[in-house]
Amino acid sequence: MSAETIAIAEEVRPRLPRGVRLRHDETRREWTLLAPERVLKADRIAVEILKRCTGEKTLREIVDELTAAYGADRARVDTDVRALLAQLVAKRMVDL
Amino acid sequence: MNAPAKLAAPIGILAELTHRCPLGCPYCSNPLALDPRVEELDAETWKRVFSEAAAAGVLHAHLSGGEPASRRDLVEIVAHCAKVGLYTNLITSGIGITPAVMARLSEAGLDHVQLSIQDADPVSADKIAGYAGGFARKREVAGLVTGAGLPLTVNAVIHRANVARAGAMVELAIALGARRVEVAHTQYYGWAMVNRAALLPSRAEAQAAIEEVERLRKLHEGRIVIDHVIPDYHARYPKACMGGWARRTLNVTPTGRVLPCHAAETIPGLEFWNVKEHSLAEIWASSPAFNAFRGTEWMREPCRSCPRKEIDFGGCRCQAMAMTGDPRQADPVCHLSPHHSAIEAALGNPASAGEVEYQYRRMVRVPAAAE
Ligand code: SF4
Ligand code: SF4
Questions:
Q1: CATH code of the domain containing A37
Q2: How many A from CA of B4 to the centre of ligand 2?
């Protein structure tokens, strides 16, 4: 089973749990997601998604916002957001 | 020196805040000659070191020991790490973490707790740690960590006395509310080397434990993250120890010596600089010990012409030293090493269970010959 196939409901409110931090790394000039013994580079899209994972917005709202902000295709954004969340949920770096 | 022209910044710092520890684990990675309390760096110096680490590009600070909670100023140090933006990880045996201390650590901005367990069986666990009641205390501390809302990692070191319960320790970690578990087969340095005859499991036992843990990894995916450090004595190729010498992390001893890895002092002739005399950035760039085995220039054959030399960097320098007497040799774990038979010999005749008594880690002066 690949992580991407995990179904995530529209109404979940993803959030970064305590102990997972999105941070700009001044030394390397990049965004990183910090977790126990893990440093993941976050690209521009990932940063925009993760900044919205506050536990307040639903998945649907996050996708709507990003679609509006970037004038992008909603289905495409939806796929990207789900793929990232599924990956991070498997690593226990995002809670739903 | 042979440092590359453009030196990458360090990612992690492991700070051994103290060597004091109430437990006596026979596999402890601390050196045999433990630093006494009177020589420990004070809180002000540690704070400066963490500020320098953050400025040098370090992201993760691992507060370790010994038992870091043996220091009264632990909370103050944690608060400083948080203030300078470091991701702060407390590596603890749990002993000394009272409810009040836990609350203050959480408030100070601690990011994560890594709690060691010795076994899934309470009697065996306390015997391994040489500390009665330790297992029960650890269960309570796990509850304090998760109760404070902090993420918990459980850490288990595997050796002969608990190898049959590697899987049970993963299950225990889940029951304790851990989001992550580290299952690490013993690495033979420091006290573990002294106790190797009592610790080394048979090849079959180690293999069964590895398979069980891998099975649980799949079973519990999304529930708990399993980081599995397999025993390198049984591998074909060595690990890139520390991600390569002086490439990613620094290790600071309780008295301020800065090492590329915790066992580096077992290599004779290396010159270590101290945070009392140099800044961390200076040490990272110019300390003779860091530059001694940085990159690949120092290598001998078979590493020098090996296509894997940028992958595993020739493995562990300290293991090469311990088993071949020469730190420039390939790690003897590598099947290409001319000294690989030394590993085969150690694996060939592990003593049977119960035959060998532990030499518990204790803070006593050891005779120079034993170092
Ligand atoms: S391994 Fe055991 S003895 Fe060594 S510092 Fe950790 S808890 Fe203490
Ligand atoms: S010969 Fe050296 S570089 Fe090649 S795999 Fe073995 S230890 Fe690694």
A1: 1.10.10.1150
A2: 20
